[in-house]
Automatic annotation (TrEMBL):
<protein>
    <recommendedName>
        <fullName>Transcriptional regulator WhiB</fullName>
    </recommendedName>
</protein>
<dbReference type="InterPro" id="IPR034768">
    <property type="entry name" value="4FE4S_WBL"/>
</dbReference>
<keyword id="KW-0479">Metal-binding</keyword>
<dbReference type="GO" id="GO:0046872">
    <property type="term" value="F:metal ion binding"/>
</dbReference>
<feature type="compositionally biased region" description="Low complexity">
    <location>
        <begin position="85"/>
        <end position="96"/>
    </location>
</feature>
<feature type="binding site">
    <location>
        <position position="50"/>
    </location>
    <ligand>
        <name>[4Fe-4S] cluster</name>
    </ligand>
</feature>
<dbReference type="InterPro" id="IPR003482">
    <property type="entry name" value="Whib"/>
</dbReference>
<feature type="binding site">
    <location>
        <position position="44"/>
    </location>
    <ligand>
        <name>[4Fe-4S] cluster</name>
    </ligand>
</feature>
<keyword id="KW-0805">Transcription regulation</keyword>
<feature type="domain" description="4Fe-4S Wbl-type">
    <location>
        <begin position="17"/>
        <end position="74"/>
    </location>
</feature>
<keyword id="KW-0804">Transcription</keyword>
<dbReference type="GO" id="GO:0051539">
    <property type="term" value="F:4 iron, 4 sulfur cluster binding"/>
</dbReference>
<feature type="binding site">
    <location>
        <position position="41"/>
    </location>
    <ligand>
        <name>[4Fe-4S] cluster</name>
    </ligand>
</feature>
<comment type="function">
    <text>Acts as a transcriptional regulator. Probably redox-responsive. The apo- but not holo-form probably binds DNA.</text>
</comment>
<feature type="binding site">
    <location>
        <position position="18"/>
    </location>
    <ligand>
        <name>[4Fe-4S] cluster</name>
    </ligand>
</feature>
<keyword id="KW-0411">Iron-sulfur</keyword>
<feature type="region of interest" description="Disordered">
    <location>
        <begin position="79"/>
        <end position="103"/>
    </location>
</feature>
Amino acid sequence: MISVPLRPTPAWMSQANCQGTDTNEFYPDKGGDSTAARRICRRCPVRLECLKDALDRREKHGIWGGLSDHQRTALLRRRERQQAREAAATKQQEQAGNTCVTCDEPEDRWDTRDRLYISGGVKCPGCSRADLDEEKTLEHTEMAA
Ligand code: SF4
Ligand SMILES: [Zn+2]
């Protein structure tokens, strides 16, 4: 006889508050009352683990981690939108690419017509000029000394 290994049970399940309770409470009919189940979840020490698990599995039925399928779907959508926003921000940052080490101005805003503009340079033309001015002042001071 072939022995089929049991599906591993996450460790947190042993602490589930819903153990031994009426399963029907957690699977109310459409539009049914889930207050009792939610109350059990609210006091559950592994509520977050349970919710995460249900979200990861895209669980379609029942109350998990105190949330209904509808609420979990809304949470997932919100999370996806946030991830999309973060990805867009990262992409924008990558596109902006090089920035001036002194003033942080992204290179795409540097004045390319400036004589001191260096493509991919470490400093924007303005900061390069300020540096040169400083050196000139220094030169003068040294000469005067
Ligand atoms: S959060 Fe609710 S459904 Fe999940 S383990 Fe706890 S009591 Fe059970
Ligand atoms: Zn600069």
